[in-house]
Structure formats: structure tokens, C-alpha cells
Amino acid sequence: MCMYQVALFLVAVFQGCLADCGSSSACWDDDLRLAKLEALVEHLQTQVSDLTAAKVKTEAELKITQDMARTAVAGCSKTWTLKRTQIVFPNLEKIALHQQTPTYVERMPTPLPNNTRAVIVQVFCNFWNTDGHAYLNVDIHQDGNEEGGVASVENTHYRVYANTFYYEVMVPWNGDLSDRLKFEVKSSYQTGGDLNWYRLRVVGYILA
Predict the structure, then answer these.
(1) Each residue's pLDDT tens digit, 144-170
(2) Could you give the dihedral angle defined by the CA atoms of residues 33, 37, 40 and 42, in that order, rounded to the nearest 10 degrees?
(3) Could you give the residue ranges of the DSSP H alpha helices within the chain?
(4) 74 CB neighbour count, 10 Å cutoff
(5) Residue of 93, 119, 124, 96 lying closest to 108 (CA atoms)
């Protein structure tokens, strides 16, 4: 039996005893003890209410934490798959721009899977003389998906003899939007002949 139940039992007993007690000093003492006991019972009732409220709050917080954990685990169970391809855009095969900033919008020749999350763009530079320049800064993103993210590439090559440079960038992709890639040239500088140029291709995509 818990302390709260014991207190209630004692209050009931004292009340029964006082019913036949009269007005003697002993009864006054009993009245005082009963008042103290009733105060104790009231205090215990408050504690029980507080503990009940705290238990309800803790259970609610635990449920929220468990739901968040399940969601996180479910998200981790998704697999990412890299697919390699080779998509050529004739306009971007040999870019040799000098102080020009055009924008190219290229359509994918075939639709990508609906669960495509990013496309991989190849940035290749062919540099073939000692005193020339091959500068190209470009922002790349899916047309109409600027909020999804923009891949910015910056290239500054000067006085490099007979070298090639290659790297790849991931561009966010939303299958519900357009099938076009936009290449916005921010700056360019090219000297040294027609053997200095850049190439931009799609060489893969990410599925999830």
C-alpha cells in the first residue's frame, strides 16, 4: 500500500473516532492531528498530480523521439546508385571563349529516371602552349531548379605547356522539373591559339 493510500485510510479512521469524541481536550488534540493528516493528504494529492503530469509529458517526448529515430533509420535505408553515361552537347565540346559570357541551355537527349537526384558534369580543359590563357568560370544548374542548387566551376590556367585538366561536379536534379541543363558563363579569357579549349559533358547521374 502506498503512502498516499495509507494517509487516506488514517484520515477515515480519525474521522470515525472523532464522531463520538465530544469536546474534550483529547478530542482537540485529535482534531489537530486530523488537520495535519488532511494537510498531508492534500500535499500527497498534489505530488501524485504532478507525477502523473510529468509521466504523461515524458511518454509524449519519448514517442516523439522514437518517431524521429524511425524516420532517420528509414532515411538511412535508402540506397544511392551511381550510373555512368556519356552525353555530348555539340555546343560545349570545344569552348574557346575570350571575354565572353554566353548562356547555354542544353536538353537531355533521353529522359533520366524519375528518381535521379543529381547529374555529373565533366569539366575538361585542353591546354597546349606555353604563354596562353585558358580561363573559364561557369555556373551549372538544372533549368528551373535554381533553388535546388548551383554548381560553380572556376578554372584559371596560364602558361602551362601541353597539359590537360579534368574533374567532375554534381548538379542537383529534380525529375519533376525540366529536362534541360543551363550553363551560365560568368567569365572567360582565352589566348594562345585554338589548342586551348574546354569541354563540358554529362558523364553520369545519381539515383536514390
Answers:
(1) 998 899 999 999 999 888 889 999 999
(2) -130
(3) 3-18, 25-76
(4) 9
(5) 119
